Amino acid sequence: MSKPDHQPLLQTRPRRPFYRDLTFQVVAGMVLGVAVGALWPGLGRELKPLGDIFIRLIEMVVGLIIFCTVTHGIASVRDLSKVGRIAIKAIVYFEVVTSIALVIGLVTINLLRPGVGMHIDASMLQHAPAAQSAAPIGFGEFFVNLVPMSAFGAFAQGDILQILVFSVLFACGLASIGERAKPVLQVVDAVSGGLFWIIKIVMKIAPIAAFGAIAFTVAQFGLSTLLPLGALIGEFMLTCAIFFLLVLAPIAHFSGFNLLKLMRYIREELVLVLGTSSSESVFPQLTAKLTRLGVNESVVGMVLPTAYSFNHDGTCLYFAAVAVFLAQATGTALGWEQQLGLLVILLVTSKGGAGVSGSAIAVLTMTLAATKTIPVGSVALILGIHRVLSAAFVFTNIAGNCVATIVVGRWEKAVDTQQLKRELDIGYRIV
């Protein structure tokens, strides 16, 4: 019997051994780090540079990657009205979703009330380090700070917002000169390729970085230090889960994709931020993955960097929960009128630390200072568990930013829906 001339070809790839999967390696590094930090705290404290070096390697190129991504994406469009339309839609989305996050954070912390009964005398607490230099940022100062003193200064300081402003202006300038910009775009594209090669190499040490970061955290603060504030940790984890369930999942559903499949697609990045508590460490990989999902390059280049500065879903949950928790712990009366005022302040101050790695404590401190009710010194209460909380809110930030990028892309009809569905169904694979 002759075989048919044509048989269906299945696009199958040999499954890699589980121990070669980056997600497994990062989780294993975190587990080993907890053990080393708990059993040999002296050694654990010495391992801190492993995580710091990894984050610095990423930060070394992330500014240039933002510049290349934004410049190539916008200049290739050649339609400046489209750029403005994308920006407006993105900002509106960010403000609505982060406002919802703040409301969820306030409602949950008031219902569960983990800080009630602690009876902490705030006068006995030392001021948090950030409190010494933190000061409220007004609207005027915020907008002035958007513009760098010089383009090189923005890159040197790693200020994402300033880099974004310069990149958008430079890209618009290239778009305005038409075909003459083509050689520059070719150079930008080549530079971008070189930068992503660096990221690919750096990612190989991600498990080592997660190991060092977790080992230091456990060694420095100890497992026992998490117990007194375990209620706050549990409350905040629940708050993040509620946000995923009530906000991100419905948004994803009505936008035509499955949130769980998206999280599976970016699982390596989500696991990595749990270990490093750094959203910057996964920006380049997310840029590549969102483009591979079928989101237009111009949308990814515009929305994702902007989301890093304005769409702090998890951070807003953190600010709301921790601020009210500190009021409860110190016996500070905080009625709904004061909490609505707190919400308005948070909408401003949450943008004040935009783009600054590890700025949550400083922003929280200046928020408390702006309320003039919650003792600023009470921030010292959560310093020991901040790392645990930051891992959760950075995780939420990353998922929220990816959802936002796809949603704005769908609004712009700039997403290949078939490619999006195909990639999410199959899951991310290294090619």
| Terminal residue distance | 37 Å
**CATH fold group:** Proton glutamate symport protein
Summed up, the domain count is: 1
Measured as a percent range, the helix fraction is: over 70%
Q: Based on DSSP secondary structure assignment, what is the total number of beta strands? A: 0
CATH class division: Mainly Alpha
CATH architecture: Orthogonal Bundle
By secondary-structure content and strand pairing, the structural class works out as mainly alpha
Radius of gyration of CA atoms, rounded to a whole number: 22 Å
The helix/strand order is HHHHHHHHHHHHHHHHHHH
Q: For the residues shown, what is the average pLDDT?
A: 79
Membrane topology: Multi-pass membrane protein
Protein name: C4-dicarboxylate transporter DctA
Main location: membrane
Keywords: Cell membrane, Membrane, Symport, Transmembrane, Transmembrane helix, Transport
Commentary on this structure:
There is one protein chain. With 431 residues, the protein is mostly helical. It has one domain (20-426): Proton glutamate symport protein (Orthogonal Bundle), CATH 1.10.3860. 70% of the residues lie in helices and 0% in strands. It is built from 19 helices and no strands. The chain has helices at residues 22-39, 41-46, 48-77, 80-112, 139-145, 151-157, 160-176, 182-202, 206-221, 230-254, 259-265, 267-276, 283-292, 297-310, 313-329, 336-352, 360-371, 386-411, 417-426. α3 runs antiparallel to α8, α4 runs antiparallel to α10 and α16 (336-352) crosses α17. The chain is globular. It starts with 21 loop residues before the first helix and ends in a 5-residue tail after the last helix. Mean pLDDT is 79; it is low at 1-13, 126-136 and 352-357.
